[in-house]
Design goal:
It contains 3 helices and 3 strands; from the N terminus they run H-H-E-E-H-E. By secondary structure, it is α+β, with helices and mostly antiparallel strands. About 20% of the residues have low confidence.
Length: 144
C-alpha cells in the first residue's frame, strides 16, 4: 500500500502596511500632511543622570510618529509651517501648548496647537531627560 506524501504547508506572504502606525482606514484615505518635528528638550536638571543619546533619539522618533497621528489639515487652509512650544510631565501628559511662530494662516496655527493637546498623553520621556517637566519646541509642517 502506497502512502500519500504529507500535504505541503501553505506559505502565506504578508505585506507590511504602508504606515504600520496608522489604522488601516487612515492608510487608504487621502494623503495627509506630514510633520517634520525636531523636538528640543530642556537640559536635564542638575544632579540627574542624563538619558543616553540612543534612548533620546528613539523617544523623539516615537514622539514624532505619535504627534503625526493626531494631525489634521484644516479645510481651506494653505500649506505652511507652524512653530509650537509645549511642556509635558514625566508621564507624557501635555501641561501647556502655545504658538511660537505662526504660518500666516490662522486655521493652521490653531490646528497645530490643538493637535498637541489632542495627542496627550504623548510617549513618556526616557529617564534622565529633563526634570519634573520637559519643554519642547517643534516645527509642524502642513502640506497637501
Amino acid at each position: 500500500m502506497k502512502r500519500k506524501p504529507p500535504p505541503k504547508p501553505k506559505v502565506v506572504q504578508r505585506r507590511k502596511p504602508v504606515n504600520p502606525d496608522k489604522p488601516r482606514s487612515e492608510q487608504n484615505s487621502a494623503p495627509t500632511a506630514q510633520a517634520q518635528i525636531a523636538p528640543r528638550a530642556a537640559a536635564p536638571a542638575s544632579g540627574a543622570s542624563s538619558a543616553s543619546p540612543a534612548a533620546t533619539a528613539s523617544w523623539r522618533g516615537t514622539l514624532i510618529a505619535h504627534l503625526n497621528r493626531f494631525k489634521r489639515f484644516p479645510t481651506g487652509a494653505n500649506p505652511g509651517t507652524v512653530q509650537v512650544a509645549f511642556s509635558i510631565d514625566r508621564g507624557g501628559r501635555v501641561l501647556s501648548a502655545r504658538l511660537v511662530r505662526g504660518s500666516g494662516d490662522a486655521a493652521l496655527d490653531q490646528e497645530a496647537v490643538a493637535m498637541i493637546r489632542r495627542a496627550s498623553p504623548v510617549p513618556a520621556p526616557p529617564d534622565g531627560l529633563g526634570g519634573g517637566s520637559i519643554s519642547l519646541s517643534v516645527p509642524i509642517r502642513f502640506s497637501r
